[in-house]
Amino acid sequence: MRSNQPAQASAARVESAFAKGPQKKWRAGVLGATGIVGQRLVNLLADHPWFALTEVAASERSSGRTYAEAVQWHLEAPIPDAARDLAVKGLETDLDCDFVFSALDSSVAGSAEEDFARAGYPVVSNTRNHRMDPDVPLLIPEVNAAHLDAIPLQQKNRGYDTGFIVTNPNCSTAGLVLVLKPLADAFGLEKIFVVTLQAISGAGYPGVASMDIQGNVVPFISGEEEKMEAERFVDAGLGLSAHCNRVPVVDGHLECVSVGLKKIASLDEVREALRNFEVDSELASLPSAVRHPVVVLDEEDRPQPRRDVNAGNGMAAVVGRVRECPLLDVKLTLLSHNLVRGAAGAALLNAELLAARGFLKHRVTPSESPLAEPVSR
Questions:
Q1: Which of 247, 319, 320, 325 could bridge 197 with an S-S bond, Cβ 3.0-4.6 Å?
Q2: Confidence (pTM)
Q3: 224 touches 196 (CB < 8 A)
Q4: What domains appear along the chain, each with residue ranges and CATH number?
């Protein structure tokens, strides 16, 4: 497992500069704002201490309407006031914001994200298109924050100026890696076998047809197993096999995991390593971060999506049923919120880390430029 060891100077800079919040909020845009993940981002940005939502963009059929008119809202909380009257724009690279989140469909995300990065916008992406690009950070701040060091190389390779692309992992990978990190640090990992039970919200809206999923389990999610096996946050030689299933649960991916360890460990030592996993002071200072991102439950029938999915405001991974595995060494059950920890919340945390480390700048719009002059007629 690659370690996360940010420089002491960076951590000190974050704590001092952001102890009371930034003097001026960064303006955020959301691409794909009307979709399921886009709606989560819009909701999470409401009253955010560092970011202000100033732009929403979506497909041409939504362009020109207000956000409230264009979106088919699916969250229990109402549409935030700051978003209701925003005009939905297209994917032109002239948005009035400092950076963009991308929750676009993968059919258009690849080129659109490159266009925005080329135009100078930092792009914080939740899509799959650029996850495996060697110069694009595939980021989980608690695990590999040092991968942000790849941004200058990406800008050099691609001819970007102030723009760049950073991605977060697949929704089921996000919770799994968060749990594997402390185990890798304490004992080392050899093999992973995982079976996922994934919520229907992970398929977007309208998603899986009701007659296909009600009272049923679908033992196939296109591309999911390949993504879990390819998105390596652990040593390249580690063996990982995944079986992915869609189940009739609204939110929360449950994963049954068996782990082979390099060092012998008792079950108590495994539980202690998970419970004691704590982020450093730099990450703890970020608004969306959880100081202890892994929650361990002792009840024999937990975690459960209905009861545990919102642990840590949806940013924690919840672990239970830690026990011996007759094939490998240890087996456990974990739960994470697929739309928060696995999508919108992950992107938001990545943006917060980018801001704290100085990668987000306040863009000057033409109306703000001191060189702007009225056109004489």
A1: 247
A2: 0.92
A3: yes
A4: 8-169+343-356 (3.40.50.720), 171-338 (3.30.360.10)
